[in-house]
Design a protein that fits this description.
The protein has about 160 residues and is of the alpha+beta class. The protein folds into two domains: about 35 residues; about 120 residues, Nuclear Transport Factor 2, Chain: A. Helix content is about 45%, strand content about 30%. Strand 2 and strand 3 form a beta hairpin. A five-stranded antiparallel sheet has the order 1-2-3-4-5. Helix 3 crosses helix 5. The radius of gyration is 24 Å and the shape is elongated.
Length: about 160
């Protein structure tokens, strides 16, 4: 005589596993849909134009223009003199930008903190005249304009 206890137990275990897997997939979908960050495949033209303008200003030595046209967050983080020293050092050590490739582009809506409101963060792999590096531009939207809030660069040439 054969017992069906083992097969009934394994069917229940399989059903619980499928139910748990379905629950996990649903939770995962819900969490990703509720996120405030959106990775983008394409950047808005305004961000491209802002990066190009900042790059041209740095290359031309117009460090005060970069400072004065940046957001209040940039000006809170550094004085005109500090900003000038940073950008001038970057320009002298790395030279001008030859090529940029977008690594990540993220748009987010923040309800609080320093970067409150609409924010766009773009990271590039960048080739300069005298080296390579990873650049990160953080823009905040103020009065329908994208303004530079933060700039970070990582390069062995800056050490």
């Amino acid at each position: 005589m054969r017992s069906d206890c083992g097969s009934a137990g394994s069917r229940r275990a399989r059903a619980r596993f499928q139910w748990l897997l379905t629950l996990l997939l649903a939770a995962s979908s819900l969490l990703s849909a509720c996120g405030l960050k959106t990775e983008r495949r394409q950047m808005p033209a305004e961000i491209d134009e802002a990066v190009a303008s900042i790059t041209a200003d740095i290359a031309a030595g117009r460090y005060d223009k970069v400072y004065n046209e940046a957001s209040e967050l940039w000006r809170q983080d550094s004085s005109l003199e500090q900003s000038t020293v940073l950008l001038k050092t970057l320009n002298e050590k790395l030279g001008t930008v030859n090529h940029r490739t977008v690594h990540t582009a993220i748009e987010q809506e923040n309800s609080g903190g320093d970067l409150k409101g609409r924010v766009f963060i773009v990271t590039y792999r960048t080739t300069f005249d005298r080296g390579e590096g990873m650049e990160s531009f953080t823009f905040v939207e103020r009065n329908r304009q994208w303004l530079l809030a933060r700039y970070r660069i990582s390069s062995t040439e800056l050490k």
